[in-house]
Structure prediction request, 143 residues.
Amino acid sequence: MRFSIPSLHINTSIESVGLTWDGAMQTPSGPDTVGWFALGSLPGEVGSAVIAGHYDFIGRKEAVFHKLDKLRPGDLILVENEKGGTLTFVVRKTQAFDVTADTTTVFSSAQGSHLNLITCNGVRDNVKKKYTKRLVVFTDLVE
Prediction:
């Protein structure tokens, strides 16, 4: 599968990710790919498919989702499925969550077909090697 955000000049491959040992969503293996949460909905299915991407990466200041905060309602996200078809999603809203906040809405199985993008945000804690927030972009399938 392929993933693109034309307004941010992103065009990359999608890898499957699962859960870490402590129950969090895994991140993609590198700075230039995105990870689809394989334990949830597929993009285009009913529910909320979730795709994660790195904000930055070891030795790099920018990774694939570094400019995700620049997305605005109405921007388009494209997902090419395994059959060569393209699904189009439109940005509904973006929201920053505290890293300790309940983010069940990101993974909800609400009616409709949604694609939610997630990356790090906020201030980096260099001791914990983590950011204080998560940025989530909520999108809806364009029928």
Q: What stands out?
A: The radius of gyration is 14 Å. Residues 121 and 133 are 5 Å apart (CA to CA). The domain at 2-141 is CATH 2.40.260.10 (Sortase; Chain: A;).
